[in-house]
C-alpha cells in the first residue's frame, strides 16, 4: 500500500517539480532579479551592513531581524545541504551544482521580495504579536478574491514543513554510522520492538531513533518562537563554522584536484554531448534540489521574517536576502567540493543522500564520518526547530491560535513516522508540498513586484549603515 501511494506521489511530484517549478522559481526569480535592478548584487553591501545595525538586533516583544535570519538559516542549512547536494550529484552529476549556484543568486532577489512584502503586509495575533507569511500577504494585499490561494499555501505549508526528509535522512545517518547488521541481530531492544510490531530489526531500530529525535525537538519547540530563535542564534554559527573547518581540511589535503573539480562543474553544467534534453534535466535537478535547500520562492521565510519586530520592509528584505548566499552559496559548495574530491559517485544505485557524503568524509578525514555525524545532527535538529514554527503559523491561520498548538504535537509525532518511511517516498512527499507552497508564493511576488519596487525606490536614499 505504501509503495503504491509513494509511486503516485512521486509521479505527481516529478511533474510539478519538473519544468513547471523550474520555470516558476528560476524563470520567475530571474525576472525579479532584473526587474529589481539586480538588487541582490547592487545592495549586497547594504545587507551586510544591516547585520551590524543595532536596530536589526532589537527584538522587542518578539524576535529581531537578525534572529529571524538565523532561524531561517537554521531551517535551510539542514539536511538538504548535505543529503540534497549528494542526491543532486548522484542524479545530475557535477553540473547540477552550477545550477544550484544560479538558484542562489536569483534566490537572493526572491528572498528580498519576500522579506519586503511580509513586513509591509504583516498582520498580528490576538495577543498583539506580529504574524506574517504568504497567506497574510495575499489576504491583505490582493483581496478576498485571492483568499483561496492563501488557503492553498497554508495547507501546503502545514504539510510541507513536516521535516519529511530531515527526519528520514538523520535516521539513515545514525543507522549507517552506529549500527551494523550483526549488532542489530543481537540487540535486545531492536528484537523486542520487532516482535511487537512485526517489522524487521532494521526498521524497528529506526523507530527508536525517531522517538529520540521527537523528544529532543519537543524540548525546544514547546518554548515557542523566542526559544527557537535563541537556540538558532548560537547553533547556526557553530555548525557552519565546524563544517567549514572540516571541508577546509579536505580541500587542503587535496588541493591539487580542486581546479579539476571546478572545471567539471562548469563543463558538465553546459554539456551538450547527450543533447539539449540532458542539459535541461541537469539544470532542473540542480534547481529542484536548491529549492529544497534555500527555500527562495517557497514562502517559508515570509513566515519567520513576518514574525520579527521590525516594521521597515526594505531593511527586512535586505536581511532576508542573505539567507541563500549562506546555504546554497557557501554550505552547498562546501558539500559539493568534499564529495567531488573524495566521494565515489560511480555505481550508486537508487536515491542516495547522506550515505554518499558519509563515505566521502570518512575517506578524507580520520573519524570523518563521526565528525560529520555531529554536524548532521545539528543541521537536522536546527531545521526541525524552525519548521515546527512554520507549520504552526499555517495551522494558526487556518484553524485559529487556540487550535494551532495541536499541530505542534502532530508535527512531533510525524518525526517518528518519517524516520521509518522509505527515502524515495519521503523525497516525493517533500517535493510535492514544496511545489504547492512555491506556486502561490511566486504568483504573489510577481503580482506585487511594483509595490516592492516602490518601497525600494523610496528607501534608496536612506543609508542602512546609519539607521540606528
Mean pLDDT: 80
Show unreliable segments.
272-279, 463-468
Shape by Cα distribution: globular
* Widest β-sheet, arrangement of strands: 1-2
Distance between the termini: 59 Å
What's a quick, concise take on this entry?
The protein has 24 helices and two strands. It has 468 residues and is an all-alpha fold.
What does this structure look like?
The termini are far apart. The chain is mainly alpha-helical. The chain contains 24 helices and two strands. It has a two-stranded antiparallel sheet.
Features:
468 residues, mainly alpha, 24 helices, 2 strands, disordered C terminus
Q: What does the secondary structure layout of this molecule look like, with pairings?
A:
Layout: H1 2-16, H2 19-35, H3 39-42, H4 44-52, H5 65-76, H6 83-92, H7 95-120, E1 123-124, E2 130-131, H8 134-142, H9 147-160, H10 164-178, H11 181-186, H12 188-197, H13 201-221, H14 224-253, H15 258-269, H16 276-294, H17 300-306, H18 313-320, H19 322-342, H20 354-364, H21 368-399, H22 401-419, H23 423-447, H24 449-459
Antiparallel strand pairs: 1-2
Helix pairs in contact: 1-23, 2-7, 2-16, 2-23, 5-14, 5-17, 5-19, 5-21, 6-16, 6-20, 7-15, 7-16, 7-17, 7-18, 7-19, 8-9, 9-21, 9-23, 10-13, 10-21, 10-22, 10-23, 12-13, 13-21, 13-22, 14-19, 14-21, 19-20, 20-21, 21-22
Amino acid at each position: 500500500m505504501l509503495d503504491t501511494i509513494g509511486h503516485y506521489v512521486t509521479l505527481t511530484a516529478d511533474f510539478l517539480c519538473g519544468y513547471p517549478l523550474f520555470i516558476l522559481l528560476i524563470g520567475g526569480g530571474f525576472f525579479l532579479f532584473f526587474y529589481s535592478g539586480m538588487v541582490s548584487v547592487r545592495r549586497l553591501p547594504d545587507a551586510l551592513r544591516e547585520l551590524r545595525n543595532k536596530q536589526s538586533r532589537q527584538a522587542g516583544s518578539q524576535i529581531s531581524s537578525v534572529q529571524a535570519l538565523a532561524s531561517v538559516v537554521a531551517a535551510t542549512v539542514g539536511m538538504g545541504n548535505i543529503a540534497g547536494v549528494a542526491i543532486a550529484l548522484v542524479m545530475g552529476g557535477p553540473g547540477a551544482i552550477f545550477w544550484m549556484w544560479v538558484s542562489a543568486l536569483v534566490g537572493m532577489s526572491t528572498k528580498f521580495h519576500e522579506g519586503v512584502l511580509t513586513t509591509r503586509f504583516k498582520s498580528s495575533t490576538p495577543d498583539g504579536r506580529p504574524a506574517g507569511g504568504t497567506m497574510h500577504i495575499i489576504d491583505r494585499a490582493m483581496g478576498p478574491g485571492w483568499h483561496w490561494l492563501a488557503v492553498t499555501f497554508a495547507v501546503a505549508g502545514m504539510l510541507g514543513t513536516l521535516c519529511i526528509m530531515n527526519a528520514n535522512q538523520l535516521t539513515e545517518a545514525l543507522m549507517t554510522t552506529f549500527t551494523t547488521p550483526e549488532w542489530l541481530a543481537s540487540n535486545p531492544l531492536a528484537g523486542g520492538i520487532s516482535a511487537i510490531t512485526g517489522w524487521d530489526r532494521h526498521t524497528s531500530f529506526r523507530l527508536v531513533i525517531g522517538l529520540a529525535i521527537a523528544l529532543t525537538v519537543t524540548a525546544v519547540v514547546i518554548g515557542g518562537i523566542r526559544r527557537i530563535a535563541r537556540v538558532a542564534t548560537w547553533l547556526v554559527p557553530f555548525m557552519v563554522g565546524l563544517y567549514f573547518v572540516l571541508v577546509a581540511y579536505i580541500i587542503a589535503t587535496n588541493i591539487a584536484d580542486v581546479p579539476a573539480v571546478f572545471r567539471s562543474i562548469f563543463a558538465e553544467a553546459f554539456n551538450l554531448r547527450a543533447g539539449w534534453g540532458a542539459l535541461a534535466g541537469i539544470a532542473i535537478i540542480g534547481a529542484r534540489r536548491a529549492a529544497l535547500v534555500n527555500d527562495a520562492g517557497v514562502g517559508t521565510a515570509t513566515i519567520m521574517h513576518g514574525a520579527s519586530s521590525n516594521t521597515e520592509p526594505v531593511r527586512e528584505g535586505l536581511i532576508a536576502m542573505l539567507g541563500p548566499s549562506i546555504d546554497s552559496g557557501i554550505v552547498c559548495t562546501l558539500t559539493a567540493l568534499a564529495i567531488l574530491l573524495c566521494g565515489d559517485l560511480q555505481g550508486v544505485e537508487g536515491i542516495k543522500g547522506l550515505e554518499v557524503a558519509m563515505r566521502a568524509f570518512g575517506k578524507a578525514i580520520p573519524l570523518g564520518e563521526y565528525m560529520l555525524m555531529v554536524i548532521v545532527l545539528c543541521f537536522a535538529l536546527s531545521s526541525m526547530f524552525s519548521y515546527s514554527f512554520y507549520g504552526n503559523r499555517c495551522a494558526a491561520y487556518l484553524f485559529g491560535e487556540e487550535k494551532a498548538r495541536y499541530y505542534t504535537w502532530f508535527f512531533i509525532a510525524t518525526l517518528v513516522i518519517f524516520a521509518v518511511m522509505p527515502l524515495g517516498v519521503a523525497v516525493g512527499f517533500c517535493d510535492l508540498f514544496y511545489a504547492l507552497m512555491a506556486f502561490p508564493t511566486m504568483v504573489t511576488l510577481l503580482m506585487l513586484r511594483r509595490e516592492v519596487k516602490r518601497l525600494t525606490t523610496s528607501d534608496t536614499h536612506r543609508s542602512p549603515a546609519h539607521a540606528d
